[in-house]
């Protein structure tokens, strides 16, 4: 499977997924149809499906234009979000298979940023598309869920194989890791990753994909078991009990909201 990030709006990514064997392609999250259709034409592939992670405008706003250009397009989206996803034709639930040519994805329900948020996981390709739930170095805001629900959703993703590539919905990595470094200044993996990410961004290059291993080593929202992180949070929020992981996670989220 070839995976092509297509920049959208100011800091979103759509991803064009291409099955090299059949020439079939899908797009994960489309805010603007034109750049996606340009890429499809340039590569001479056949766009057959949209895989929407969640209903926010910057992830599905391009669907109507895509459908005008390609009326037979399948539009996959969470059954729980169905009325809010323009053009939806296939309502998916946790564990459902999704096909793109000969490629197979599995839907993973990961609510909290929105109540019906899903990820698309391609086990044979070692790739997962995480929308606005798991970012490189961060996680989405809690618009339609709480801290415990987000922790459970992130834990599902963290349980994927370490070498799984993580393709997220926004280029937020540099700012995420700067925040992370305020909580874990002693985390060597984090310092190294931040340096690598700063270098990429100086060159105007994308920081995606990350990997599950990288996220477990650097992402503060997957590191509530780090003693250094817990101490940093409790220094700022003394009311957080030492053994309360959910309160700790919620405090990290609040600190990030203000960063
Ligand atoms: Zn969103
Ligand atoms: Fe978004």
Structure summarized in a few sentences:
The chain has helices at residues 33-43, 57-60, 63-69, 147-158, 173-183, 188-202, 212-218, 227-236, 245-257; strands spanning 2-8, 12-18, 24-28, 46-51, 74-78, 90-92, 97-100, 103-109, 118-122, 127-131, 134-135, 138-139, 165-168, 210-211.
Overview of the molecule:
- With 259 residues, this protein is an alpha/beta fold.
- It has a single domain, classed as Metallo-beta-lactamase, Chain A (4-Layer Sandwich), CATH 3.60.15.10.
- It is built from nine helices and 14 strands.
- A six-stranded mixed beta sheet has the order 1-2-3-4-5-6, covered by helices on one side. It has a six-stranded mixed beta sheet with strand order 7-8-9-10-13-14. A two-stranded antiparallel ribbon has the order 11-12.
- Helix 5 packs antiparallel against helix 6 (188-202).
- The mean pLDDT is 98.
- Residues 54, 56, 113, 132 line the site of zinc ion (ZN).
């Amino acid at each position: 499977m070839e995976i092509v990030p297509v920049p959208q709006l100011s800091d979103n990514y759509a991803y064009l997924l291409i099955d090299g064997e059949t020439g079939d392609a899908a797009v994960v999250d489309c805010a603007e149809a034109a750049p996606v259709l340009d890429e499809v034409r340039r590569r001479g592939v056949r766009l057959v499906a949209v895989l929407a992670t969640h209903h926010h405008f910057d992830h599905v706003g391009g669907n109507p234009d895509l459908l005008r250009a390609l009326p037979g397009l399948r539009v996959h989206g969470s059954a729980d979000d169905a009325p809010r996803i323009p053009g939806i034709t296939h309502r998916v639930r946790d564990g459902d298979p999704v096909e793109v040519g000969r490629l197979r994805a599995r839907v993973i329900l990961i609510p909290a940023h929105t109540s019906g948020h899903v990820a698309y996981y391609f086990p044979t390709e070692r790739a997962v598309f995480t929308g606005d739930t798991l970012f490189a170095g961060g996680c989405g805001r809690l618009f339609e869920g709480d801290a415990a629900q987000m922790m459970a959703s992130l834990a599902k993703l963290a349980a994927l194989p370490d070498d799984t590539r993580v393709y997220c919905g926004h280029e937020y990595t540099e700012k995420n890791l700067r925040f992370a470094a305020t909580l874990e200044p002693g985390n060597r993996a984090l310092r190294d990753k931040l340096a690598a990410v700063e270098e990429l961004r100086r060159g105007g290059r994308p920081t995606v994909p990350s990997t599950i291993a990288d996220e477990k080593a650097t992402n503060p929202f997957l590191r509530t078991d780090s003693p250094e992180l817990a101490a940093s949070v409790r220094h700022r929020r003394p009311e957080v009990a030492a053994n309360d992981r959910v309160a700790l996670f919620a405090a990290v989220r609040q600190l990030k909201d203000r960063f």
